[in-house]
Amino acid sequence: MKPLCDVHDYQQLAKRRIPRMFMDYVDCGSWTESTYRRNASDFSKVLLRQRVAVDMSNRSLATTLVGKDYALPFALAPIGILGMMHADGEILAARAAERAGIPFTLSTMSVCSIEQVAKATTQPFWFQLYVMRDREFAGRLIDRAKAAGCSALVLTLDLQILGQRHKDIRNGLSTPPRFTPDHVYQVLTRPRWALQMLGTRNHSFGNIVGHAASATGMRSAAHWAAGQMYLELNWNDVEWIKQRWGGKLILKGILDEEDARLAVESGADAIVVSNHGGRQMDSAPSTISMLPAIVDAVKGRIEVHLDGGVRSGQDALKALCLGARGVWLGRAFVYGLAARGQQGVSEVIEIVRKELDTSMAMSGERFVTKVGHHNLSSVPAALMAERHAVPEST
Ligand SMILES: Cc1cc2nc3c(=O)[nH]c(=O)nc-3n(C[C@H](O)[C@H](O)[C@H](O)COP(=O)(O)O)c2cc1C
After folding, report:
1. Mutate to test the pocket of ligand 1, among 7, 27, 79 (most ligand atoms within 8 A of CB)
2. Could you report the per-residue pLDDT of 27-75, keeping only the tens digit for each?
3. With contact defined as beta carbons under 8 Å apart, do 230 and 129 qualify?
4. Cα-Cα-Cα-Cα dihedral of 350, 353, 354, 357, to 10°?
């Protein structure tokens, strides 16, 4: 096997390891996928400032995220049905995160349940909540996350309604899989993946089956979840969730200065500048292009994190320079998992860590908590140009 040097190499290997319908599920955005592409490509518009003859010994990437010490300024983003990218994917990714000293975020729509992940790990992880129409169910999820010792609740705000993903429709991706002749072919040509799946009993929505009234199996759980989109979600809900949870609260899906200010008022502990990896609103701006304005709007009153298009340590460094305290890896770690299981996630985290560490050194910085605008080669005017061209609303 050729050496795996960067996240892209893991993406290529993942493509060869898992059925195409699942790879496409990961590697797609909504409608024209313009925001999905822009998230990654806008990073290339930000340039780093190179310094020389500066002491670069004894560097540290350690930081604190929502009040807890971590070895790196990274978190693993919540990914639905991670357990279909690799058998027991949530447990493996959580273990890799734990070994790297970073938080793992378990999705509401995970295959392995909150309790299973808690049992298989020793460090607290974060739990991501989708608020559903069934408030009692949402309340019970919060209580279960609390009982499992989760150290932060990540409330996703950008998925009240679903963006359309053409690839999933064209692939006939459904839960449970319908197994058309094409699907059978895809599975048979990925025997390693098929064998893994035969070796685990976790194939369903672990947080839902047996916990929602009518969800007794995968089919009924999927059916139940589809009817649970909570269109009314608003800031009053954030308030009751905050009360019921009572711990650190992170709001995910903020992409606008005004919403960022409202997030500050809500009393949350952190926000994630995110557009759901370009899977929701198509033609929304990239997260990296919105980061400076949002950091400016919140004026240090709330911790700001970012996800979307981060594929390297250089990308992470750019986000940190522009004011993010934490950078979340999404597809990057999924490629590692799909390619090589837990080891693959560890390897991807290590690749991105090393890229960040080395690039930070080349910037003349020794502590990740000290990087800032002064480490950028120029104010990223190109990045902001499209926004500045829009007249102020009245
Ligand atoms: C396959 C896939 C599934 C996702 N599932 C969830 C989810 O269940 N909950 C959530 O809040 N975000 C979900 N997201 C969004 C990610 O948490 C994150 O915002 C996004 O992946 C960041 O972009 P990146 O993948 O380009 O790094 C998902 C993203 C992908 C690619």
Report:
1. 79
2. 999 999 999 999 999 999 999 999 999 999 999 999 999 999 999 999 9
3. no
4. -160
| 40 Cα nearest atom in ligand 1 | 26
Condensed to tens digits (0 to 9), the pLDDT of residues 329-362 reads 999 999 999 999 999 999 999 999 999 999 999 9
**Is the pTM of the predicted complex or chain greater than 0.85?**
yes
- Both tokens of 172, joined, read 């006939």
Burial (CB count <10 Å: 0-12, 13-18, 19+), residue 236: exposed
Does residue 47 contact residue 372 with C-beta atoms inside 8 Å?
no
Let me know: does 374 contact 47? Beta carbons within 8 Å: no
Q: Round to the nearest angstrom and report the end-to-end CA distance of the chain.
A: 59
Out of 276, 305, 374, 388, the active site residue is: 276
Per-residue tokens: 83: 């357990």
Only one residue has tokens 């009360």, namely 243
Distance CA 230, CA 228 (A): 6
Instruction: Give the separation between CA 363 and CA 368, rounded to whole angstroms.
Output: 11
Identity (one letter) of the amino acid at 137? Answer: F
